[in-house]
Amino acid sequence: MALLWQQFLASFSFESYFPLLAEVGVILTLITALAAWNYIKEYKFWYYILTLIYLISTVVVILTTDWFFFLFAWEMVTLTTTFLLAWSSWKLVKQYFVIQFTGSSILLFAALAANALGYTEIAAIDSVLLQFVLIIGMATKSGIFIFHFWLPPIHSEAPSPVSAILSGWVVKLGYIFLLKIIPIESGNTMLYLLGIAMVVYGGWQAVRSADLKIMLAYSTVSQLGFIALAIGTGGELAFLGAVLFIIAHGFAKTTLFITSGILQREYGSRVVYDFKGAIFKRPLTSLAVIISFLSLAGLVFSAGYNAKYLISSAQLPGLLTKVVFFGFALISAIYSLRILYWIFIVDEDYSNFADKLKKALNSYQIYSTDILAILFGTLGVLIVAFWPEMPGDMLEYLVDYDFNIIAGVRDSIIYILLAVYLIHNNAGFKVKVRDHLSLERYLRSALDFIFSMSRKNVKFDTDKIFETVFYNTIFNTSKKIHDFFYQDLTIQLLWIPVFLSILLLWQQIYSYF
Amino acid sequence: MMETRIILLIIVPLGTAFIIPFIDLINAKLRRFFVLLGISIQIFNLTSIVVQYFDQIRDGSLFLQYHLGGWQPPFGINLVMDNLSFLFIAIVTLSLLFIIIYSIGYVGHHEGKFYVLYFIIIAASNGAMLTGDLFNMYVFIELLTIASGALIAFQRSHPGSEAAIKYLFYNIIAGSLIFFGVLLTYFNLGTLTMADVANNFAALESGIQLFITAIFLTALLIKMGVFPFLFWLPKSYDSSPAPVTAVLSGVLSKIYLYLFIRLIWTVIGFETIVALNLNILLIDIALFSSFLGHVFALQANNIKRLLGYSSIGHIGMIFAVIMLNTEAGFYGGILHIIAHMFMKAGLFVACGYLLQYTVSNHYRDFKGVGLRDKPVFIAFIILLLSMIGMPPLLGFASKWFILMAFLEAQSYFGAFIVIFGSLTAVIYYLRYIAKGFEEVRLSEDDLKMEVFNQPLLSVLYREKIVTFITYAYTAVIIIFGFGFRFLNIPLRMSIESIMNVERYIELVLGG
Amino acid sequence: MRNNFIFIILFMLGLYALIMKTNLIKNVIGLNIMEASIFFWVIAFSDVGGEVAIHKMGEEFSKFNDPVPQALTLTGIVIGASTAALLLTLIIELNQFTDTIDRDEIEGLNN
Amino acid sequence: MHKYLKKTLVISVFILTAIALYENFLLVPEYTGLRTGVSDYIISSGLSDTGSLNLITAVLYDYRAFDSLGESTVIFGAVSGIVLILSRKMLPVSSRGLSFIVKRTFGLVTPFIALFSLYVITHGHLSPGGGFQGGVILAVISIIFSIVYGSAFDYRRYSPQVKTAMETMGAFTFLGLGVVGILMEGFFLKNLGFLTARTGTLISAGSIPYVNFGVGIKVGAGLAIIFYSMIQKTFKEDF
């Protein structure tokens, strides 16, 4: 027993930026735990027990270098988050579990292959094929492009604190793992391309949706794209950028999901247009939203700006890079600024503003833990924004780094102007209010899309296709195999003399072949 | 070392079985007292053996013998307890204790007969695992067959008697083949003691070796339910009452695995199997059997049958990994034997509880089962997750070691089967979990009808005991899932006693 | 050698009745023939031309047949009889439900 | 599958199996003589070891007495199972039996059958016979009773409870003698030496006659129970 414990402790590695990431993970979990106090009504005890197990497991996932403990802890993360989803609906649990389990089995296989190929510890892996398999497994678990399809429906339907955990930290574990296994010198081209696709696709979907939580979920996809892109680029600067991005986005997304929970509760709606004048009614909440969204948008003096700047400066210099990154930043800016736009609109009568403020403040008293959580989150965002080198020695490289504030201010003004213009006209986006996003509908629309490419004007019963693909084929095939072997008792018993004679004549048979 | 307590492990349950009909004649209320007395003497006995020989169990030198009637081994029957049989007896006794407590809550009618047969199973399983004599092993195997065959038909239902008939057809053939094999061995070597046979078996002509090995292998494959002979297994698991199914899958199949290890490694010798080129054939058959079990499970429309098919899958996997004859293989295999014993028995026990109000075991009747009793259903789900191989549970640890063993031996087909098993298990278990949470609206009258459709067994449930045992199984899975290294020493030591045949022979024949 | 021949024939006959016949009672008879063939073979094979291994008072030790296989066969016969009785009981029970002992008409035995 | 095709398949498989068995039997050497080993030892010193003239009985109840215990447990288990499965039935009061002549004759013969069975049971260690064989003869009395006097006669004479008690008692005799062996001689089922008188008499061979007696009662009662369970009829009103 002692052996296992020692092996467990010895497997921890406290090198480079991973302890910092683990710390951030712990802080984020604590923030969500704070926010959950009022949100979770039933079985509160179990919720916190699960959160505790989750917390320990994430630390192990980030710090361990042993494959076994890594997989073990990661499965613990999966299990605990799966159970946390049960506070909203059983359906989500089922979907999430199937997807995560599929990813796990691919990952398990990849881990065993890595073990067999001599990578006994988790470290940079040179074999491109192995990288590929690991990325596929990771993609399923962390929602890299193509496999991201489960992420928006589940993250948007989960209860807000759980969404904060999932979106804020769980999906990032995969990227932290990629930071470990992708060699820092070369990067990975596939990951780079996937990252670009994610940024564009996620951003576009976020722009199109008006539901706050769905928008946040898609923006997670988009922002994760930046991390994938950075890791795919390779180089010290890009990796540092990725780390900073993970931290910044973690704080911002956690805060935003918690605020979305608060807003949803106060306004009884999740649609962005309903939050008119929130800045006056809910100043503190709105402030947190503003700061976090500015960070997501990557405007100057924000956490996101620092990270994005590092990533973009790690790219090959040239006009194309600049244009591409400009486009990326603009997409983020549009969906981020749109909600700020609605928050600042005032169309109510504020004659007795003082009374309303008093009422609002009273409600803050009730939800004081929420406000505390938001404050901590916002504080995190601000710290990364103004003192990116502060978290410790790990990022000391950044102390001397010039973030080129002037260019930042210039770019930010351009973004804001362009974005406000586009938003104000509201043209070309076709913003949709989707109140419900489910995985089935999502897959069905994907299937529709595929079939519409091949055969025009043929309406498929997608329900049936779904059933057929996932269940009926398997069922019927196995039924056929079953019926073939189970003919009747005579044939079943006949196997006995057959087998007996095969064994008795085995020497002749063996020598014959 | 001569030790009287190991014979008590057999004759105490035997005495309990003999006394119960007599008690029934005098006062049926005393019956449970005697049942609990019998099982607690058994536990006390085993515990005292553990306490006294703790050091020897730790360093692997445990070797207890008993000469029945005082006759030296080649002339009389001897009982042997080494680390391997000790480990198996300990876990089998623990599992049987759980099931007997469960059956106190479960069995309504004909409780007396149930306990008679049940204690015969306890005595016979201990006897089969302890004996060092081939013919004595045959007698105990037949005892197991008779008792379990009668228990399968315990509910006296139509499918129950069909299942029992099918079970007996297969197992009586296997029994007579074992008889034939034992006598063939006797005619060629002039002895029945396992150690003596093991000593002289290698000197035989290879044709006769193959003859004897083929007969024993066929019989044991029938008993275990590996590929060409798997047909009796799901039927009998499906049709028997819950505690009986738990015994069948949790205990009996593991005893046959033990006997298989004993016969192949100790008596016949693995070198002989390799020399006869049988090992590759057996591994392939076992893996194919595992594959078929999982494929069959995909189409099962009946939860107990489904669990039976998945048992085929797991037993095939264990069989294959043991046949690799590596230390890692044994480690994974025996760990999975333990894990599977508790998981499957727990699942059947939970099934027995969950299906008490449903009309049948069919998939459509599984609807809403989870909502009716959530805590038990959650325990059920945890056990299912362990079957799939989710990490904090024991099923993951054992599957991991099996996977490592297959990869170490470069048997990629085996590794594929392990992963395939887990993936298909996700598909076929999730169906049932989802169905269990579907809401079903039943009026009061419907419920009454359901209850009256069942035999009276289900009305007489003592729910608390039944629930408690389900939780106990789940707790075992979770505790050993975190602390599977607790089993490290017993496992290593029993592997040593499998590998070190010379020591066994020397100690049996010398002392 | 003659013994082996007869054993194989009897064994195969018993197995044939068990596997091919659809009448469950006939199956049990086949099973018993199969067992009996093994018993027969054991006794015949262990016969080395001596006497049954029973000492007679006042007579000296003469050449005996091996007593061990005979004792084992006795055990085997009793076990075979018990299993056959259990099987027949189960067939009686099954007959109550299905009103037939024909295997083809009882669907449940096949799956 | 087509019937004839199936038949052809089965027969061809059987021919294959027969050939396989034949091939393997060719390798088995003839059992020409007794080897040095178990049987040789038993033949040479069985009489002096156990005091039983019948060496087969010596093997059954002394050298391998544990097998016999297992074997009688098999009967015990089978009886329990059969009673369990058929217990929902009731005994039909069938005929009034056969004619007066048969009844009378059988009444006269019965004590002799019982005596014969007792003889076979108790002289197991001296001549062919023993507990199982004598027990079967004992069970025959019960069976003939039901044929000759009608099914209810024996049922009333010796109720199932009595039979069960007898069976349990027989089993306990065997087990108890084994435990006495532990207590007095140190080994389970060890032959009790102090019971031995001169070889060749009824009271010889240690505990073998007593074990035989227990097994005889057990088998007799057990087979009678099996017979009565099987001739019972379904209790229609039940459930």
Please provide a brief summary of the model.
Chain A has about 525 residues and is mostly helical. Helix content of chain A is about 75%, strand content about 0%.
Can you give a write-up of this model?
Chain C: It holds the Pfam family Oxidored_q2. Chain C: It is found in: Cell membrane. With about 525 residues, chain A is mainly α. Chain A has two domains: about 10-175 and about 185-345 and about 355-430, no CATH class; about 440-510, no CATH class. Chain A is built from 22 helices and no strands. Chain A is globular and about 95 Å long. Chain B is mainly alpha-helical and about 500 residues long. Chain B has one domain. Helix content of chain B is about 75%, strand content about 0%. Chain B has helices at about 5-25, 30-50, 55-60, 85-105, 110-130, 135-150, 160-190, 195-200, 205-225, 230-240, 240-270, 270-275, 280-300, 305-325, 325-355, 370, 375-390, 395-410, 410-435, 445-455, 465-480, 490-500, 500-510, and strands at about 65, 80. In chain B, helix 10 (about 230-240) crosses helix 14 (about 305-325) and helix 18 (about 395-410) crosses helix 21. Chain B is globular. Chain C is mainly alpha-helical. Chain C has one domain (about 1-45, about 65-110): Helix Hairpins (Orthogonal Bundle), CATH 1.10.287. Chain C has helices spanning about 1-20, 25-45, 65-100. In chain C, helix 1 packs antiparallel against helix 2 and helix 2 (about 25-45) runs antiparallel to helix 3 (about 65-100). Chain C is elongated, with a radius of gyration of 19 Å. The model of chain C has no long low-confidence stretch (mean pLDDT about 90). With about 240 residues, chain D is mainly alpha-helical. Chain D has one domain. In chain D, helix 6 (about 130-150) runs parallel beside helix 9. The interface between A and C is small, with 10 and 9 residues.
Please describe the topology of this protein:
The complex is a heterotetramer of chains A (513), B (511), C (111) and D (239).
Chain A lengths: L1 H9 L7 H22 L4 H20 L3 H19 L4 H27 L11 H15 L8 H7 L2 H22 L7 H20 L3 H22 L2 H32 L10 H4 L1 H15 L5 H12 L4 H26 L8 H14 L1 H19 L18 H21 L13 H16 L7 H24 L3 H16 L1 H7 L1
Chain B lengths: L4 H22 L4 H22 L1 H6 L3 E5 L10 E5 H24 L4 H20 L3 H19 L5 H32 L4 H8 L4 H19 L7 H8 L2 H27 L1 H6 L2 H22 L3 H21 L3 H28 L14 H4 L1 H15 L5 H15 L3 H25 L7 H10 L9 H20 L5 H12 L1 H10 L1
Helix pairs in contact in B: 1-2, 1-5, 2-4, 4-5, 4-11, 4-15, 4-21, 4-22, 5-6, 6-7, 6-11, 7-9, 7-10, 8-11, 8-23, 9-11, 10-11, 10-14, 11-14, 11-15, 13-14, 13-19, 14-15, 14-19, 15-17, 15-18, 15-21, 17-19, 17-21, 18-19, 18-21
Chain C lengths: L1 H19 L3 H22 L21 H32 L13
Helix pairs in contact in C: 1-2, 2-3
Family (chain C): Belongs to the CPA3 antiporters (TC 2.A.63) subunit C family.
Organism (chain C): Halanaerobium polyolivorans
Subcellular location (chain C): Cell membrane
